[in-house]
Amino acid sequence: MHRFITSLEELAEHPPRHLILLYSGGVDGTYLLQRLQELGTTVTALNVRIGDPEPSATAAAQARLFGARFVDVDVTDRFFAEFAPAAVHADALYQEQFPVGSTLTRPLMAQTAVRVAREHGADVIGHTATYMQNSAIRLSGSIAALDPGIGIAAPFLGSDLPREAKLAALRDVGVSFPEGIHSIDANPWARVIECGSLESPENRLDESVFRWTRSVDEAPDDPVEIALTFEGGLPVALDDEPTAFGDLVNRLNELAGAHGVGRSSGLEDTPFGVKNHEVREAPAATVVTKAHQVLANAVYTAHEHAVRGGIAREWTGTVVQGGWFSLLGESLAKALADLDQPLTGTVRLRLHKGTLTVLSVASPNGLYYTRLGKAFHESMHEYSYTPWLTLATLPSRLRRFGDPE
Asked: What band does 222 get if pLDDT is binned at 50, 70 and 90?
């Protein structure tokens, strides 16, 4: 059974022998490093990089300041090989509104932490997620599924310590942080911004928080057209040039972002019924998801499309709530990847001042009738329509039998 530590008081009462702390150099993690040092716990601060070109020198220095070993692991290749593709197969939009973000990275971070914990002989993995963050269950649920023998420390679930108190405690030991009112979580698939003026959705959107996308007013007057080619449901070429998935995402983030594509604002449900406001920008994810949806519409039958859509929504909901490595999550992901096998073809789109317009779709597996030419119409001339109409209208005619109207 897992041992869960969910408050700073529990952490003090049952200090771990050796804790792997998921650490990127922020205020919460640095404050926790200070508390763990006071408790005499051996700490390995693990920075899991996804898309960042270099390790964080600041995080490394702060970890060493509090007596922790610093380990940096770049998992970008794994992200593009296993985690982002699952989102493409599912058209993974949170509540069908905007591309998921940390839903993809938290299970990967947990997977990396479990591996490092085994390598270093640690007995507990720790993180700093709060009860207002779905990352709490995404990290904890993934760790629990991957290794039931490792304990989990999430002390800020039960200890809602104000940020000011953490900063004051750190200043006392000579550590300071630049003032920043927004909390930002970014990976190549999405950049999510919250807190500060964004805390309430009733406040007018502060567009100064965006970094990857231009405003419509600043976007180029001339549109740009692109062609996105898929094989087996995944993008493999941009403008007819074979391109690795990671490179394709980076290029689309720049190109679509420059044309103002990919901004969204919405409310995220928490496990406790209330909603948390988030603003995000995901240029590449927006373009890839739209193109994938268009191609799926061209290739699937109506029944296949409906069933696949239900599986996709169920998978997205499952992983948003921390079930990436659950039996259901893994089974649904496999089903979606299998269903996507016939999704091969090219979608052409226009990017212009925040809009995304589909120009054409072509697929060797497309079911649109123009692929069949005159042969289709000739075969339909031989079809007997009276039996079809008789059967198709039978329920309605029977139910209205005897109606004076």
From this structure: very high
